Amino acid sequence: MTRFVFDQFSKDFFESLLGGYGVVETGKRVSSEVREIDVWFSTAQGELPPELGLLGEMASMAGVSLFEPYRNPVTVNEIADCLQKQNTVRGQMYREALRQKSRFDLGDWPKLWILTPTASKDVLGTFGAENRLEGTEGVYYLAEGLKTAIVVLHQLPVIPETLWLRILGRGKIQKQAIDELQALPASNPIRSITLELLYNLQQNLELSTEQDQEDQELIMRLKPLYQQDRQRAIEEGKQQGESKLILRQLNRRLGELSSEIAVQINQLSIEQLEELGEALFDFQSESDLRNWLLQHN
Fold first, then answer.
1. Residue 214: what are its φ and ψ, rounded to 5°?
2. Mind listing the pLDDT tens digit for each residue in 233-276?
């Protein structure tokens, strides 16, 4: 996958999932040089909702969190660059605290999260990164004073709490995450947001002239999902139109129906609504309608 397409997807992903719980800035310049933080997040509401799982826990660990996602395995030089950017942010925050005559302790420093699909033992060892906390497989912490962790996406346990991070993986790991995403209830708002971002990613990849085999496999994985969602939206639109028509006819025939009855009718499938339409003139009272609904639910 081209770096630009993935970078844009990652930035949109964090902005969409975290934007409602604080300030998200992407491509934030942190010095007079052309040096940018991929995703800057400052929390406004403390802990984030549990639905965000490990991503929410990470984002709420500090007042300011810096996310640097990599599509390819991170290198020693790239980690060093991330640390340099983080230190620039820390320096800016420290000087601002001095101007405001407020304290700026270690706990106020920005937390850096480096996300990488894989990482070799040599790379992790170079920075003394260790998996220190039980139950956090794949999360390697540097020394406390560095306020940094390297998240190896392909080592994360396959559990719901890590889904929103594994979506940023690649190959089989990302495919597994997409399968889990598809299996979530259609009413899940994070599912809907993430699928929209993935469909946008699919379209951008199809327009790219630098597709590799992995890109093509991802496109083929997302295409049927897009078609299914599109068909579902068409059917839901038809269902809503049918239910409104049936309700108008029933209200004219039986008088204003109770809200409970209206809710039940709105939940009927297109096939059930068609059956209800055929039985419309058999109802003499709302009680008849209730009995029909009981028999067809």
1. -65, -40
2. 666 677 777 788 778 778 877 888 888 888 888 888 878 887 88
